[in-house]
């Protein structure tokens, strides 16, 4: 039996233009790492990637990529995603992501999609997402004035939730390995 091998792309969505006009100007770091609009979700992201792969590589690219393409993780507050794709054709997905310049309607926001990391395991990809969100929070706190920024609070809340989820998964894995040792 042949095992299908995958690659995991850690993807970051950056917003170069301000989404909404505010009275107080946001620091560039906070503005470029803005939360993604609610109308854009994991299903729309998967469809967007498939459409761009088909546009760039035609039916061949679509056939090679579509069976293994999946959005494993999507965080609108940090504008970060983990996309699973076939190992032999991850470059096609990467190229398609690079050519995305706008979110689809109804959002229709200019965006820069940046592939941050290519990983062979989902665990390392998740660790990288957590590490990067912590770095963004620290850098944004350095810019933060007396008033707490709503975006910063949203990112920090999402990072805390992700940390709790990861700790729960690790606790389940540890508990499962202890049960196996006791049964042996």
From TrEMBL:
Q: Which keywords are on file for this protein?
A: Hydrolase, Nucleus, tRNA processing
Give the location in the cell.
Answer: Nucleus
Any one GO CC term of this protein is: nucleolus
GO MF annotation terms: ribonuclease P activity; ribonuclease P RNA binding
Per the record, what are the reactions this protein catalyses? Endonucleolytic cleavage of RNA, removing 5'-extranucleotides from tRNA precursor
Give the main EC class.
hydrolase
Q: Name one Pfam family in it.
A: RNase_P_Rpp14
Keyword tRNA processing annotated: yes
**EC?**
3.1.26.5
Biological process (GO) annotations held by this record are:
maturation of 5.8S rRNA; tRNA 5'-leader removal
Q: Which family does it belong to?
A: Belongs to the eukaryotic/archaeal RNase P protein component 2 family.
Q: Which PANTHER family match?
A: RIBONUCLEASE P PROTEIN SUBUNIT P14, RIBONUCLEASE P_MRP PROTEIN SUBUNIT POP5
Chain's role:
Component of ribonuclease P, a protein complex that generates mature tRNA molecules by cleaving their 5'-ends. Also a component of RNase MRP, which cleaves pre-rRNA sequences.
What is this protein's name?
Answer: Ribonuclease P/MRP protein subunit POP5
Native organism is Ampelomyces quisqualis
């Amino acid at each position: 039996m042949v095992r299908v091998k995958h690659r995991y792309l850690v993807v970051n969505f950056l917003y170069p233009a301000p989404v909404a006009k505010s009275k107080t100007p946001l620091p560039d770091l906070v503005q470029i790492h803005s939360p993604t609009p609610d109308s854009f979700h994991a299903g729309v992201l998967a469809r967007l990637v498939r459409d761009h792969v088909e546009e760039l590589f035609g039916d061949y690219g679509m056939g090679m990529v579509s069976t293994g393409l999946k959005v494993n993780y999507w965080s609108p507050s940090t504008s970060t995603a983990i996309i699973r794709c076939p190992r032999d054709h991850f470059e096609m997905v990467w190229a398609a992501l690079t050519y995305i310049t706008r979110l689809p309607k109804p959002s229709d926001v200019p965006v820069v999609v940046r592939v941050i990391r290519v990983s062979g395991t989902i665990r390392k990809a998740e660790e990288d997402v957590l590490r990067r969100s912590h770095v963004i929070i620290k850098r944004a706190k350095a810019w933060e004035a007396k008033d707490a920024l709503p975006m910063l609070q949203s990112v920090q809340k999402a990072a805390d939730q992700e940390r709790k989820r990861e700790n729960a998964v690790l606790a389940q894995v540890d508990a499962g390995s202890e049960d196996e040792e006791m049964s042996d």
